[in-house]
Design goal:
There is one protein chain. About 15% of the residues lie in helices and about 40% in strands. It is α+β, with helices and mostly antiparallel strands. The strands form 2 sheets. A 3-stranded antiparallel beta sheet has the order 1-2-5, with no helix packed on it.
Length: about 100
């Protein structure tokens, strides 16, 4: 019975750490991990969790003369374009 009570308390959020303690970067998207990802709809994103502008390298499919390039992204979740056109995004580990 104690296990059931503990499970209900966790589900209800009782005793859970405040959101500010769990995620100290208020600019990060709570629904996405940091870095590059795609969704099931063919969209590519970069979630910048640094709290400042970040320089990234955008890897493109390179069809029709479109080439890879650097881009300065603000903190938070950034839509990068359609996947597979956007093949990936990597941090340059520099502010911009």
């Amino acid at each position: 019975m104690a296990i059931l009570g503990a499970a209900l308390a966790i589900t209800a959020g009782v005793g859970a750490a405040p959101a500010s303690a769990a995620n100290t970067d208020s600019t990060a998207s709570p629904k996405a991990d940091c870095g590059w990802r795609t969704d099931w709809l063919g969209n590519a994103y970069w979630n910048n969790c640094t709290g400042k502008k970040e320089l990234v390298w955008v890897d493109r499919l390179n069809v029709g003369g479109i080439q890879d390039h650097e881009k300065c992204l603000p903190a938070g979740d950034n839509y990068m374009g359609n996947w597979p056109d956007i093949q990936g995004v990597q941090s340059k580990h520099k502010s911009c």
